[in-house]
Amino acid sequence: MAALTLAIEAYRDRVLGGWIGKSAGVTLGQAVRGQLTPAFFNFYNPVPGQPVSSVALDFPVAWLAALEQAGPDIGSDTLRQTWLEKLDYSQDEFGYAVLNMRRGLPSPASGAHSNWFRHATGAVMRADIWAMVAPGNPQAAAALAYHDAVLDHSEEGVWAAMFLAAVGSAGFFVRDLLPLLTIGLAMIPRTC
């Protein structure tokens, strides 16, 4: 099989576009988060000058700092330590996970034990960072997403993050939807 290659300029452009798009979406959507009815905006006044504080943005930044220190073999223990040192989110699955981590429960128990939100979407909001650090390597992206997601999720909460990380990673090279879905599904249990 031929090696996948991506020019550094193209890689940077895609990652920058993904990060700016995510930052804009999270920031502009902050005002209607959790709202059950559709929101219609014709304009934003004032236009936000910088991204908001958000799980979807703060965790990936902390994970990148941990990745710089630990290297590509980063695991749940390093991510756990980074979380406890740098992040302060206590709602939903994050609060249960922090409580479990402070009790000394290792992952995957920290994400599963007494966590009513273990199937929620917190890890999904962070999965794209793993696709960005492992472009064209969906297995590596899914593995990294797993090490992240088991901190505060289990089962579907983990598998959804792995699926999206794999699809995003493959998306650097594959454009057709069906092969992307097939790649993502290959990274998760058939029974999920």
Number of strand segments: 0
Give the terminus-to-terminus CA distance: 30 Å
Q: How would you sum up the global shape?
A: globular
Q: Helix-strand pattern, N to C?
A: HHHHHHHHH
Helix content, binned percent? 55-70%
Strand content: under 5%
Which segments are poorly predicted (pLDDT under 50) over 5 or more consecutive residues?
Answer: none
Average pLDDT over all residues: 92
| Number of helical elements | 9
Rg, alpha carbons: 17 Å
Most strands sheet: none
- Given helix and strand content, the structural type is mainly alpha
Architecture overview:
This protein has 192 residues and is an all-alpha fold. Helices cover 56% and strands 0% of the residues. The protein has nine helices and no strands. It has helices at residues 8-29, 55-70, 76-86, 92-102, 109-112, 127-133, 138-149, 156-170, 177-186. α6 (127-133) runs antiparallel to α7 (138-149), α6 packs parallel to α8 and α7 packs antiparallel against α8. It is globular. The model has no long low-confidence stretch (mean pLDDT 92).
